[in-house]
Amino acid sequence: MSESGTPGNGGGGELPEAVVREARHTRWRISLVWIVPIVAAVIGVGLAWQSWKNRGIDITIEFDSADRIVAGQTTVRFRNVELGVVSGVSVAEDRERVELAVRMHMTAKPYLAEGTRFWIVRPRITAAGVTGLGTLISGAYIAMYPGPEKGKKERKFRGLEQPPSDPAGTGLALVLTSNRLHGLTEGAGIYHRGIQIGAIDRFKLDKTGDKVTIYGSIPKEYAGLVHENSEFRIAGGFDLTASLSQGVDFDTGSLRELFAGGLDVDTPPKAGPLAKTGATFPVLPRRHRANAAKAVPVGPRFVVEADALNGIAVGNPVLYRGDRVGTVVNFGLRSDGQSVGVTIAVASRYARLVRTNSVFWNASGISADLGLSGLHIHAESLQALVAGGIAFATPDDPGPPAAAGSVFALRNKAPKHHVKWKPRIWIGRKDADPDPTPADAEKPEKVHHAGDAAGKAGSHHWYNRLLHFGR
Amino acid sequence: MNESLSCPACALLCRVPEGAVDGMLACPRCAATLWHRKPASSQRTWAFLIAAAVLYVPANALPVMRITLLGHSRPDTILSGVVELFQSGMWEIGALVFVASITVPLLKIVTLAYLLITVGRRAPQRAKERTRMYRMVEYIGRWSMIDMFMLSILVALVQLGWLATIHPGPGATCFAGVVILTMFAASSFDPRLIWDNRGGE
After folding, report:
1. Do A1 and B7 form a contact (C-beta atoms < 8 A)?
2. Mind listing the pLDDT tens digit for each residue in B59-103?
3. Is the dihedral of CA A379, A384, A387, A388 positive or negative?
4. How confident is the model at residue A310 (pLDDT cuts 50, 70, 90)?
5. Of A335, B11, B77, B107, which residue has the fewest beta carbons closer than 10 angstroms?
């Protein structure tokens, strides 16, 4: 090549000579470039590992219908976190249901155990409310709730047709029996003191067709409110009570209760052991709310002994200066038939008004005094006038507080000038009493003011029976 | 006879002094290092080629992009994209994508491997054809990135938040790696090696 030089240059010098210099680096036998495939291999293996780790878990969920389920779009969510997607929809072999093939994320692995529940969330409009509105736009999704931790591994699930009211399943499942549904709906609430503590999941007619079985559930947090002797009453609808003494009383629960119906849970004061899952209760008829006003106040009970009832009835008020402080609980003839005993319960905070020197009289009806000064017509209150009641007053020398179970005589007429009696009896907060009197510090004393018969042997049983009525 | 070399930077033809070795020579005009052949050419080409072949697998197996439409997200590999294009009747574009994204990188890898093997064996046959193959591989290299350009435009444009979003997947990175590495492999290959065994005879 170098033979054919250009004529202008001298022989052998026609081409510039390359510069010789020191080799800048020793030649490596293995080129550093091999790092490149190693790095590539590391990246490749890393990605492969990652995708293997996230490969997903295939599970099957069975439902009655695949309404609004789209393969490749419908997601499975737990607390609205997407954990999987429906990959295929097919009809099950028995043609009775559909099978959804679902690919779950690897992170959902611990949740796919026995007891995990799946249900389809679609827009639902029921009397109990509107739910799943968001799914109108985004389409239905499958909600899940994991079963107990460390449950047995499971890959085939049976989906719920109704969203469970207690998805965790840790609460109380109840079975209620009734002869009618009483307008209850799925999703109707179970209420305790007006607060919803549970819901009715579903109901069915018995095979014989003469009974309704209602399944309800109460979440864990409220499970402690249901005892074995709790009562379930129909709560829906409204109450309209008209009475001469109290006028017209219209009472409903919440609007939701009104339309969707519901059940009230009530536990008697002496609560039995806690109800267990699967416990069966009868559904009792509605309790008239108007009667709630006549509810027995919590407090000590006393017996007043009268010659005759004269219109006193259970539920009548016990009045102090015209204010209702208690209720007539019970009455009954004395064993020897010589008098009648009336049990009254006085609310605890007013109990101190009842003193050993207190005077009780029958407030029912009208008392009229005809004298020189004219005619005085006196009635305790309109309510007492119509419905009857017992009033009491405590004189200026009140005496020590009467002990629960004390017996008083019932007069037929109010003592004269009793309104002018002004004993100072503190019924506010104890520590707020600006002028504590030694009288209040006195120990309660048992009294037997009733006639001569009160002390007689054999009367004790009668008193006790009267006092403990309904307890 | 004295050998002469052409400078790889400024193309000056210069004489090689006696006894000089590769790596010690420099161009008298631009001081670039002069080589008879690209240093460690086949070793480097092999390295890039193997790296490209390794990345070719995840490039096709992993999703190149993730399309999120109305909250539903769906990953797409190159192949699933091609299948979708075919299914929706756009088979011309599908074929184009298939050729450009799946066949071409594979052909490049196979061709370079073939060239390297024949050079390593010092096989003298069909040197002309092999040179032509090499030229094609080098030429095609710059067009293989079309997919990546497309993807980067899509990702930048389709950012409609909740309505529709496109995210690049790990497959895209691998695919870009394959293209770059095959280009490196092609450029580190010295086609003069094809002729070496013949020139020596």
Report:
1. no
2. 888 888 888 777 667 788 888 888 888 888 888 888 888 888 888
3. negative
4. confident
5. B11
Do strands A141-145 and A75-78 pair parallel, antiparallel, or not at all (unpaired)?
parallel
Report d(CA B147, CA B82) in Å as an integer: 12
Structure tokens, A60 = 């099957």
**Half-sphere exposure of A252 toward its Cβ, with a 13 Å CA cutoff?**
11
Cα–Cα dist A227/A212, whole Å: 22
Q: Does B199 touch chain A (CB under 8 A)?
A: no
CA gap A326, A320 in Å, rounded: 9
Chain B residues with CB under 8 Å of A136 CB are none
Contact between A214 and A187 under an 8 Å Cβ cutoff? The reply is no
Gap between the Cα atoms of A335 and A460, Å rounded? 10
Are the Cβ atoms of A47 and B14 closer than 8 angstroms? no
Look at A31 and B44 and tell me if their CB atoms are within 8 Å.
yes
Say yes or no: ipTM exceeds 0.90.
no
**Closest-CA residue of chain A to B23:** A23
Size of interface A-B (CB pairs under 8 A): 110
List all residues of chain B from 136 to 195 with a beta carbon under 8 Å from chain A: 170, 174, 177, 181, 188
DSSP state of B35: -
Q: Touching check for A70 and chain B: CB below 8 Å?
A: no
Distances (CA, A) of B63 to A40, A110, B103, B167: 18, 26, 18, 10
Helix, coil or strand: residue A329:
strand
Considering only the beta carbons, identify the residue of B28, B50, B58 that sits closest to A18: B28
The tokens describing A301, both together, are 């009970």
What are the φ and ψ backbone dihedral angles of A203, each rounded to 5 degrees? -150, 160
Under an 8 A CB cutoff, do A37 and B26 touch?
no
E strand residue ranges, chain B: 4-6, 13-15, 25-26, 65-69, 72-76, 164-168
Q: Does A368 touch chain B (CB under 8 A)?
A: no
The answer, yes or no, to whether residue A61 has pLDDT greater than 90, is: yes
Residues of A in contact with B20 (CB under 8 A): 18, 20
pLDDT in tens, A240-276: 666 655 566 666 666 666 666 788 888 877 778 888 8
CA torsion angle A204 A205 A211 A212 (round to 10): 20
Token pair in block for residue A405 = 């179970």
String of DSSP letters for A244-283: TTTEEEEEE--HHHHHH-EEEEE--SS--SBPPTTEEEEE
What pLDDT band is residue A292 in, cutting at 50, 70 and 90? very low
Which amino acid is residue A441, in one-letter code?
A
Nearest one of A202, A163, A197, A189 to A260, comparing CA atoms = A189
User: CB distance B23–A24 less than 8 Å?
Assistant: yes
Interface of B with A in 33-92 (CB under 8 A): 33-34, 40, 43-44, 47-48, 50-52, 54-55, 57-58, 61-62, 70-72, 74
Whose CA is closest to A292, among A311, A266, A272? A266
A16 vs B14, B52, B174: nearest CB:
B14
Neighbouring CB atoms inside 10 A of B177's CB total: 22
Distance from CA of A265 to the nearest CA of B (A): 43
